[in-house]
Every structure is written in C-alpha cells, then in structure tokens.
C-alpha cells in the first residue's frame, strides 16, 4: 500500500509545488488538502493519512494547534511542518506538540524528497511492527486449544523473528543469515547453560556457504553473507535511532539501544539522522547477534 499524504497550506503555489514533488517522485498518494486549519483537522481524523505536510502559520487555526488536536486521538499520524518561521522557540514548540520534522521555506525540492523518504521509512517500519503485533494477538485469540509443544528450534525461530520484526528488518536480505547464525550458536551452547560457545563469525559464514550449497543448491561466498548481515544490522541501528529521536521512552528503543548496540553508536546515529553530525553510528556484529540470543533466552 502506498504512503498517503494530506497537505495543509494556505499558499496555493506552495500547495501545488508539494503536490508535484510527491507525484513526480512517486512518493505516495495525495488523499486530501486544505488551506483552512479547522477543516484540515476534521479531514485528517476521517481520512487518516500516513503523513501530513502542514504550514505553521495558517488563518484561524495554526499548524501547531492542528498537530496537537489530531495527536489527541490519532497518534499514528506523522507530521512534517513546512514554514518560513525561524523562531527557535516556535520550532521547539512544534516538536514538543508532535511534529516529526521541520522544513524551512523557501521550498528546497531535494530536502523535501529526502525528508519524506526518511519519514516514509519510519512509517513503513511502524506498520510492519504493528501488523506483526496484530498477528500475534490474533494467534493468541484462536489458539486457545492446547496443542503439541513446538520444537525447541521452531520456538527459537519465532522468538528471533519477533525481535527482527521489532527492529523493522524482517524484509532485509540478511535476515535469513542472521537467523541461521543465531540458531547455530544456540545449538552449540552447553545443554542447560547460557554460556556462549567460542566461535569466529568467519567460520559460521563458511558453514552457511556449505549449508546453502548442499541443502538449497545456492552458490554464495562468505563476503556476500558478511555484507548482507552488516547491511541488515546497520538498518536495525538506523531504525532504533529513529525511534529514539521520535520518542526516547519508546519501549523498543529503551530495550535494544544498549543491549544490541553500543549506546554511544546509537547516539552517533541519532545525531547523524538529525543532521547534527557527519559521522553515522557503527555496529558490532557480535554484540548485535549475541544481544538477540540473550534476549530470547531471557524470555
């Protein structure tokens, strides 16, 4: 499903520019627009767009009021504020009321596209997490009849998938590799103990090459596996950092920001995402993998 947009802007020229940017760059579907704040509030509550582009200075009802009113009942609507206002106090107030990003006028096309794509990534991640949680609730509702106990490995797979879903990376190419690495390590842990075995990631990558070749006829190499795992774990870091920017008290952010990553690197990534630093965060693959193992073993 495409990302849906609603535009609140009293300047028709700016409104049309934003529409063209979204349509020309295939960023999503525009499901409504308005130049009146009061009407916009009612429309947004009914239409429930994923992202709202809203001007700060509007007649009758200003942008901050729109954000706070909508957020009272629709917390999942994401707001990007666009304005020529330069007052730090006003911008700070806008963030406190729930905007995700502030773009200064005059409109810079590249900046608008970059911000929207970044926000879309977070919106899609939230949808994945929500759908996963809804699926789990549905399973619990219908699975009221006792069934045969799942195998240990299958149970571990479910737990790993849950963590990866919370990190927003279930669709990444390296997820299968991460799953196999974790299952290999768990299999080689001493029975009844939580002590991790001694291992080298390079050896496990080689093991996976052989396994994929023998069981699935897939030819690959250790470098390809390593790159897939690294890209997926970096994506997880980016998602966690974005959660922390959006809400430092987010349960997933609090739970994983220091157990799967070095928190200093999470902070570096948060600063990078805000544009406050040119140095992004880094991932320690072993810490990431072993953090997931510790998490699922503690359940």
TrEMBL record:
UniProt xrefs under InterPro entries: Bact_response_regulator, CheY-like_superfamily, Sig_transdc_resp-reg_receiver, YcbB
Keywords: Kinase, Phosphoprotein, Transferase
Record-annotated Response regulatory domain positions: 4-120
UniProt superkingdom: Bacteria
UniProt xrefs under SUPFAM superfamilies: CheY-like
Residue(s) carrying 4-aspartylphosphate: 55
Keyword Phosphoprotein: yes
GO MF: kinase activity
Known function: May play the central regulatory role in sporulation. It may be an element of the effector pathway responsible for the activation of sporulation genes in response to nutritional stress. Spo0A may act in concert with spo0H (a sigma factor) to control the expression of some genes that are critical to the sporulation process.
PANTHER family, A to Z: RESPONSE REGULATORY DOMAIN-CONTAINING PROTEIN, STRESS RESPONSE REGULATOR PROTEIN 1
Protein's name in the database: Stage 0 sporulation protein A homolog
Organism whose genome encodes this protein: Anaeromicrobium sediminis
